[in-house]
Amino acid sequence: NRCYFTVVNGLLDDPLVPSTIITLGEQGVAEEFHPQTGIPTIVWLFPHHNRLYALAGEDDLYNGIYRFKENIEGYDAQYILGGGSEFGFAFSTNQLITASTKSDDDVFATSLTFFDSDLNFVPSYPYSSDYLLANSNATQTKVIAGFDKDNKTTIIQEFDSQNNLTITHIENFRFTQVITNPNIDDSFVVLGPPSAQPKIYSINEKPILNDLINGTWHDPQVPNQGLVVQKGRRNDGSEYVFTTLYTYDQGEPLWLAGVSDLKAEQQQLFISLFQYDGPQLFEYNITPNQEFFGELTLELLNCEQLKLTVNSEVHNKSLNLLRIDDTSFNHLCADISYLSLNQLNETSPGKKELTHE
């Protein structure tokens, strides 16, 4: 509940003049400290888990991170970079401290390093870049993006609550901003090639059910059966999905249909299926006779794969559906609406997808 400022008395690169810390409390009263902390010139202050930390150094080399004691008089943890490297910035991203570092060998390229609350180094992917962003999502996982112009690759590093690391990369795209939604676990990014209009993408374990679900689907192992999905929008702006399932019941053709509201960020869709009949089956604005059949579950695995499950009193079946489409349009699905994130770490759990909102 306080604001902290660091003020350098004199030139920033003068190692003989210590930094002053000014705190501003809840009542707006400023207090000035010249503590004998043993910390050299401070260039960056940041909080982490209700403690105050500082980047500091001497002789124009800011190579240390220090954790202040709770009374700000002195420090009780530190980490000093070696080999002529120094810190550029540092901040808190959930359970870890994220800091950028650079060495004298390369003036432009920087890399990211990670520390726990006690300033113990946390191993990560050794990736250097001239373009770095970082943010955290609603869980204990953070999303770190670094773009390499030469390799045209963006690296994402994610840590779970146990500091286990997942590595992914995207080719030929760069992040322009990393943003998050505090109400859900997925992290969002604004991303796009410099020459194109940026689009909003979300990083999910599986694609969300958006326009990708539109179309005709079938299981090559199950002939003469399939699914037609049509996403629509009502006058009030709400979205829905209408499905028609073509299957068989004891050798006889069976057509089933259902409608379900479509909410944002859904990865699964549950639809009640009905059988329709009667003389007014195709009359405009009239609901024909309907009989409940069972529940349909749809889960989009990727741009070209849809998992279907039907559960009823007499039927329980699952189909692995593929899109029925002109193959000449496949590149549109891959390049515009859907991008795959390749896992670099073989121990990482599951494949991730990048889907266009």
Describe this protein's structure.
The chain has 357 residues and is mainly beta. The protein has 1 helix and 29 strands. The strands form 5 sheets. The chain has a 9-stranded antiparallel β-sheet with strand order 13-14-15-16-28-29-19-18-17. It has an 8-stranded antiparallel β-sheet with strand order 23-22-21-20-27-26-25-24, with no helix packed on it. It starts with a strand and ends with a strand. 26% of the residues are buried.
State the main characteristics:
single chain; 357 residues; mainly beta; 8-stranded antiparallel β-sheet; 2% helix; disordered C terminus
Question: What is the topology?
Answer:
Blueprint: E1 3-8, E2 19-24, E3 30-33, E4 41-48, E5 51-58, E6 61-68, E7 75-80, E8 86-93, E9 96-102, E10 110-115, E11 121-122, E12 128-129, E13 131-136, E14 142-148, E15 153-159, E16 165-171, E17 175-180, E18 187-191, E19 199-204, E20 215-218, E21 226-233, E22 239-249, E23 252-262, E24 268-277, E25 289-302, E26 305-312, E27 316-324, H1 330-337, E28 338-343, E29 352-356
Antiparallel strand pairs: 1-2, 2-3, 4-5, 5-6, 6-7, 8-9, 9-10, 10-11, 10-12, 13-14, 14-15, 15-16, 16-28, 17-18, 18-19, 19-29, 20-21, 20-27, 21-22, 22-23, 24-25, 25-26, 26-27, 28-29
